[in-house]
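Q: Could you fold this chain for me?
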Amino acid sequence: MVHTDMDVFEWGSGGSTVWFAGRARSVHSVEHDRDWFQDVSDAASHHSLCNVWMQLVCTKQSEGELPDWSAYESSCLHAGCLFDIVFVDGRSRVKCFEAALKVIKPGGIILLHDAERPRYAQCRKIGGLHYAEIVEQRSLLIATRTP
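A: Sure. Below is the predicted structure, expressed as structure tokens.
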């Protein structure tokens, strides 16, 4: 499924970052947690993964208000390319899934982790995509855009 000529974008870095990096041409990973960002960056360096571009995008939050995830959600729009695979496994997943539609190549794949959660159900209703679902321990929604 993942080939060395593919470019990957992911929200939520971690084991997937290292896994994709070992198989794809490039991995653009966005993380919101500073400590986890450092841990994953260190792991990528330890494995000499020079095809990983990590970005820390912290949220803005005033006291007593909800966090503003807009910079995080739109981070894919600033990557400067389209992607073969977009993996949504971070915060604000519905908005990130919607943003992925703007950067996925024709024939590309959007993966939504933990898709069984009711709050992500609306992702299945977005038009112009074909859906499949893999259910093991946690659900993974696979959406493809036809060329």
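A (continued): The mean pLDDT is 90.
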